[in-house]
Amino acid sequence: MMPADNTATPALLLSVVVPVFNEEGLIDTLVARCLAALSSITADFELICVDDGSRDRTLDQLLAWRQRDSRLKVLALSRNFGHQAAYTAGLHAARGQYVAMMDGDLQDPPELLPQMYEQLRHDQHDIAYGQRTDRAESWGRRLLIGAFHRIFRGFSRLKEVDNVGNFSMLNRRALNAFLSLQEKNRYLPGLRSFIGYRQVGVPYARQPRHDGTLPKMSHGRLLKLALDALFSFSDLPIKICLYSGLVGMLVFLAAGIYVVASKMLGVAPFGWSSLGLSIYFVGSIQLLFLGILGEYVFRIYRENQNRPLYFVQRYYDEQ
């Protein structure tokens, strides 16, 4: 069972999409805060929680909340397809004139949704996105994330990508454009910036997880997401190949001049250690090139496979 694609006929004023994965300790607080924030805007809303293949009691808790308030919709995927795919599934199901995206760990405060809505309701902007002024995370994690954002901002040529995440609200016009992008390797903040339209940042301090546990996005997943962003929106990997090759050429040009000069001056020629280092240097550059080209080939292969981003186990959306 697949949710309807409501890209043309919004039936509600506001939809909020929240992907969750193994969040049984947060569900009660998450849903209560979201319902309160949305009720302060309008009664004509839907809260779509996308269960991304949770293995704990997350789905049961969501269905229990749905029995109390039918404006909570639950989209259960057939397995864990990943954060970006879960967002995409929820956005396809959303029926609102305005549609928001928010992580399910409460690091993005739902109380900011009314402010985002105010930025859009008078047709001043098409997209309002949360811009992080601070983040309650370890210094090492902040350092790595900050380095990624600086690199991505410098090489992607996109605007509205500095210290931002998925937390945002789009009107239907912008969302239809957003959903028209069909690539499989998805970095949603980059795609949101790519479509253009009138965008505005809403500053906020990113909070720690409500239950005090570590973020669900491990360093490995963050690295994968960063690579998807760089390979999709930047020519940095290719430039690394180019500049490495140029550096290698300059190094060996200097080495060649030194060898000729040493022969002419009667200085002892290079030994086996120098020759070995030269071979290792060239070999490492070649392996780097092959790795970068392999990343591009894999992404091209994945796009050509054209597999669906997700499958829906069941969509609990009936009144």
TrEMBL record:
UniProt keyword annotation of Transferase present: yes
Annotated SUPFAM superfamilies: Nucleotide-diphospho-sugar transferases
Domain Glycosyltransferase 2-like: 15-176
Keywords of this entry: Glycosyltransferase, Membrane, Transferase, Transmembrane, Transmembrane helix
Protein's cellular compartments: Membrane
Gene3D superfamilies: Spore Coat Polysaccharide Biosynthesis Protein SpsA, Chain A
Transmembrane segments: 240-259, 279-298
Name by which UniProt lists this protein: Glycosyltransferase family 2 protein
CDD domains: DPM1_like_bac
An annotated Gene Ontology molecular function: glycosyltransferase activity
EC annotation from Swiss-Prot or TrEMBL: 2.4.-.-
Metal-binding in keyword set: no
Membrane-topology descriptor: Multi-pass membrane protein
